[in-house]
What does this fold into?
Amino acid sequence: MNTNKVLLVINPVAGKSMIKDNLVGILQTLTGAGFRVECYPTQGPGDARNLVRDCREDYAFICCAGGDGTLDEVLCGMMENMYMPIVPIGYIPAGTTNDFASTLQIPTDMQEAARVIAAGNIFACDVGRFNQEQYFTYVAAFGLFTETSYETPQEWKNVFGHAAYILQGALSLGRIRTWHVHVKSDDRDITDDIAVGLVTNSRSVGGFPNLAGPDVDLTDGQFEVTLIRLPSSPMELNDLITALTSMNFENSDMIYHFTTRNLRIECDEPLSWTRDGEYAGDHTAVDIDVLEKKLKILVPSAAGTTPAASLKTGQES
It folds into this structure.
């Protein structure tokens, strides 16, 4: 690709709207690196997706400044675009949780993130496909944490063990329910009552580190699946809390934890889902599969990546 044009998609209301105070610096960083920047502020939900889906321009990459939901919209729009090839995405985290940025070690400082885009490397990672028509970068989920984790104070999220105590408190208030689901993967067939279901490709979910387990590889063509049952006794609750705080999922009867390329989850009633923290509709059946290394994203320098500067000369390998 022989171009130095960059499309910068901005969600001006993401997080605490701090992007407005950083925009000039971001533009100076990108233009100083030799890129010509076209800037587009979104007008509302779905706007970024529609913009990227209908785009016919020749860009070196598409950059987004916003939260994980903004990144999800840009990804979905790119995957749905029939007019242009998939190009690398630059991500400037400006949301409240920024789970995917945390996993990729993209700085939360917006100026530093802009410098990563200008001089960083291209990292190819897996993408999730949801019911053959939607996509997600790092999580598709249902249940307790999909409803509460994005409202949880950040100081509660700094240590994963706090998630267990949120669970314990919710139990005492009778706020948790379960869904009777049938889960079928490459080598699993599970029917059970589940309170929390997560399909992830991230080391952080909803601001909680290691919620998907300690060993996550974003490039292995496998997503981590975590299904949590509802404790029915103090002993089971203690077992669950111990498993969550120690990240020792395999020895708990309360947690199903495995990896897979393909997954189908059925429920006898409509089940509310989220994709990358955004509402994904109510479904009685969901099919999820992994598109291996389909997403190219600009990250800090690391082994196995391609220099971003090569994009401007058409030398990407």
